[in-house]
Amino acid sequence: MSREDLRAMEAELNASIMASYGPPKKYKPGSNHASKIGHPCAFYLWARRALWQEIPSVDEVVRAIFGLGNEHEKAVSARLLQEGWNVTKAQASFHDEELDIGAKMDFELSHDAKPLWKVPVPTEFKSASDTYFGSINSFDDLFLSSIRWVRLWPTQALFYGHLDEKDHELVALLMRNKTTGVPKTLITEVVEHGEHIEEVEHKLRVVNECLAAEVEAPCIEYDPMWCKDCEAKHVCPAMRSVKIEPGHHILESSGRIDSVADLYLSTKEDAKANKDAWADLKETVKGLGAWDGKPNTDTVLIGKRYRYTAHRTAKRTTLEVDRV
To answer: Mind listing the domains of the chain with CATH numbers?
Structure first.
């Protein structure tokens, strides 16, 4: 058999597995989906519904990741049943009329022989990469994660408990390491996150009002965590003023980056705090494209109050911050 035949056989097998995850899906969302409401930008949530045809479908790699996650969830559910757990409301759909939130809960968990688990706990399941699995040990870690999609998880889990007709006191997020199969459960009291829940509810009311009035919802100021790779950035008005090519650029929306610079300049007396603030500032400036210049060039970003100059050489990039 020829080498070409062997490669063709490999390609056919790979293609068949990828095809099993299904074709790209394009549909108009009928509500604000719980998996997305943790996103801080009202414009993004609005665009997913009002401009849904402009939002690209997920590619085949993401579809494969989703497929793998579903396989992990089914495997964990089977093991829980084997160990005597009550796995109820699996994939139960619900809709909150007031906030127009739609969702499918992964499941509720309880156990007749475990007193602490007598009352069912709404549980969101996530398969997690080994690269960040070890760094997440609480809901606070989820909210502060450097991984964009991980920051969406706690809000999704909280609203499953908050919106259920039973008004649950607890919610759980159950992760499983994709590499090792090791689980990690995070449980929190819903009441501890009341302020965050109120903020999300206010944001959703803004989104819903803008949808009804057929006007654009407001967008956040440029934040590399959410904006740099946003699937709606090509239709976002804020992104029109953000230029990430090398050179001198005026940042029309610079409140966030200037506030990070304020924090850095105000922490000079505290070495540790100053170091952390400096790291945040560098990451923010990097996200705006200041690290994208060619060697032996400068990239200058000019905000409302500060000028950020990134000096790039073949070996390193340094940063200077000056008042405008």
So the answer is: 25-204 (3.90.320.10), 242-323 (no CATH)
